[in-house]
Amino acid sequence: MTRIVAGSVGGRTLRVPPQGTRPTSERTREAVFSRLAHYDVLDGARVLDLYAGSGALGIEAASRGAVRVTLVDSARRAADVARRNVADLGLGAVVSVVADDAGRYAAALAAAPGDPLDLVFLDPPYDLSEQALAGVLADLAAPGVLARDAVVVVERSTRSPEPAWPVGLEALARKDYGETAVHYAEPARPDGAD
C-alpha cells in the first residue's frame, strides 16, 4: 500500500500497478519532500513526473501545493492506475496523466518548451541505461524547459553511477535511503550569477 504523506490529501492511499513499477517508499518520499520544502519549490510549482508509475511523487507534490502536475509513464497499465488515483483523490483540475515514453516526452518539451517547469521527478527503472537517462536529462536542460530556480530529482540504485549531468544542469546533493540514491540538480548559473 502506498500512502500520501502530507498536504491536502495526506493520509490517503494510492493504487499501485500490479507489476512493472518500483514505488518510492514512504520514508524516501517523506525525506525527498522535506528537502524540496527546504529548496522552497513546492508551493505554486509546475511539476513533471517522468516514469510516474502510480503517480505517487507527482500526486504528493499536488497535495503539497503544486498547481500543475503532469504524470508520464509509457506503460498503459501504470498510466491507467495513475488516472484512477488522480480521480479518486479529486485532483483532476491539477494533475494530468500522459501515456508516453519519457524520452519522447522530454524531447518534445525540448523542441517546444511551453511554461517552464519548477520541479521534475525522474524515477526510471533501475535497468534504464545511463545513456538513455543522460538523453532525457539533456532534453530537460534545453533552454526554456526549466525555470531558473527549478529542481530536478533523479532516483536510482545506490549501485548506479551519478547521473551524467548535461551542460545546463549541475548537482546539488545526493542522499541515500537503503538501496535508493536520490540525486538533486538545478539549472546551472551563468558565471557570476547568484
TrEMBL record:
Superkingdom, taxonomy of origin: Bacteria
GO biological process: rRNA methylation
Matching CDD domains: AdoMet_MTases
Tagged with keyword Protein biosynthesis: no
NCBIfam families hit by this protein: 16S rRNA (guanine(966)-N(2))-methyltransferase RsmD
An example Gene Ontology molecular-function term: methyltransferase activity
The protein, known as: 16S rRNA (Guanine966-N2)-methyltransferase
Keywords: Methyltransferase, Transferase
Organism: Xylanimonas ulmi
